[in-house]
Amino acid sequence: MTYKHKAVVLGCNYYIGLSLIRSLGKEGIHVAGVHYQEEGAYAFKSKYLSEKIIAPHYEKEEERFKDFLIEYAKKESHKPLLFPSADPYVLFIDKYFDELKEYFLINQTQKGFWSDIIDKDALYLLAEKHNVRVPKSFGSEEENLVEKVEAELGYPCIIKPFDSSTFVSTFRRKLFKVNSRKELLQRLAEIKEKNIAVAVQQLVQGFDDHMYTFDAYLNQDAKVTHWVTAQKQRQYPINFGASVYIKQIYVPELVEIGKPFLEAIGYKGFAEIEFKKDAETGDYYLIEINARTTNFNQMLVELGYNMPLLAYKELTGEAIGQKQLKETTGLGFHYMYEDIHASKGYIRSKQLTARNILKTYTEKRVGAIWDKDDPKPGMAYLGLLAGKVKKKITG
After folding, report:
1. Of the candidates 202, 218, 246, which is a domain's last residue?
2. Which of 202, 217, 250 is the last residue of a domain?
3. Where are the alpha helices (DSSP H) in the chain?
4. Is 237 found in the same domain as 184?
5. I need a surface site. Which of 72, 201, 348, 380 has the fewest CB within 10 A?
6. Shared domain check, 333 and 251
7. Same domain for 352 and 322?
8. pLDDT digits (tens, 9 = 90+) for 159-213
9. Distance between CA atoms of residues 352 and 332, nearest Å
10. 3-state helix, strand, coil in the chain (%, to 5)
11. Rounded-to-integer distance, Cα 57 and Cα 51, Å
């Protein structure tokens, strides 16, 4: 089959962008990778990339980046599709949605929708409205905050941002865990100085394997057509990070919660709901929704759930059918580089033993970057790591 529409992937310096390129390019789709520089963009090396584009920076030069994309699309005979590889790109598309929609095919149809999904405060209000359990939290500007935290949340608790990307770029972590009043006041003061909006939130009890995901595709009628559930095994940073080792596990409770919620709020396209199961009560709490391709996209593709391809086909007028994975395959996704760092943390904190971790290396799994049929990105990534090591040694 001949695909007439190009797929434009925003962001090529991380393995999510690489996975998008591979999952679409392998199907014979013309994939254009967009990044602000060639240095570090190892996804540019993929043999499945048809076109490499250097563009203005998506945050430092927002307006120029938007105009650049529109000018690119204007030259095409068929509207290209936009695929964001990270939250900042999602927010960028949402901000300029009305203009971009004129020239690109985009899953969502409502400006501001993705921003509300990424904003934890707006998401939690939406979840509560639809009777979906979320961790209890208080905004940092709330009166008598410390007293409310100590009376209703207790320690330890966590401080989470409403805008994750800004928080992570500032503090190099997703959140702060606090164990006392002194720590709470200290962290809140640091955050206030940076003018970042946060909430103090209940810490749902349970190790990292109490984190689960419901990964789904919803068509343009906001109906779930495809879904898979999974269970995290290890994260980086440990306890509050992204999956570095995750396995496909069938958990029907996640479907019972996630499917009706996503349909009720009118979601369209790919969504990943992260849940945490309370170790004491067994209740599932909605933690966040990822409104872009998941980091373990390669595992989903291997299982027969190529979500980027579903989006491409639906938006270009093809039927996509329905498919659900109601069994446990145990297939895993492994990002070895960050897992090595995570493993050190787990062992040091005595949450896992080396034996626990090494045992999982014998399980069937999909890698994040290395692909024997597309080796150049992996080789380029190793070159980047070697450069970092050299720089650290030489100072």
Report:
1. 202
2. 202
3. 15-25, 62-74, 87-95, 97-101, 113-118, 120-129, 145-148, 164-171, 181-193, 252-264, 297-302, 307-315, 336-348, 354-359, 376-394
4. no
5. 348
6. yes
7. yes
8. 988 777 788 889 988 899 999 999 999 999 999 999 998 999 999 999 999 999 9
9. 18
10. 40, 20, 40
11. 18
Yes or no: say if 334 and 244 are a contact pair by the CB < 8 Å rule: yes
**Total number of domains in the chain:** 3
Query: How far apart (Å, rounded) are the C-alpha atoms in residues 157 and 100?
Result: 40
Would 220 be classed as within a structural domain? yes
Question: Does 159 lie in the same domain as 43?
Answer: no
Contacts (Cβ under 8 Å, ≥6 apart) of 81: 5, 6, 7, 8, 104, 105, 106, 311, 312, 315, 316
Supply the CATH number for residue 243's domain: 3.30.470.20
Give residues with Cβ within 8 angstroms of 326, minimum separation 6: 250, 252
**Any idea how long the chain is?**
395
Give the structural domain span for 107.
7-116
Helix/strand/coil for 201: strand
Nearest residue to 186 (alpha-carbon basis) of 171, 174, 172, 168: 171
Residue 253's nearest CA partner among 281, 220, 223, 275 is: 275
Kindly report the backbone phi and psi dihedral angles of residue 247, in degrees, each rounded to the nearest multiple of 5, phi listed first. -125, 145
Considering the domain architecture, whether residues 165 and 97 belong to the same structural domain is answered as no
Q: Which residues contact 364 (CB under 8 A, 6 or more apart)?
A: 330, 331, 332
Query: Do residues 156 and 244 both lie within one domain?
Result: no
- Quick: pLDDT tens for 217-262: 999 999 999 999 999 999 999 998 899 999 999 999 999 999 999 9
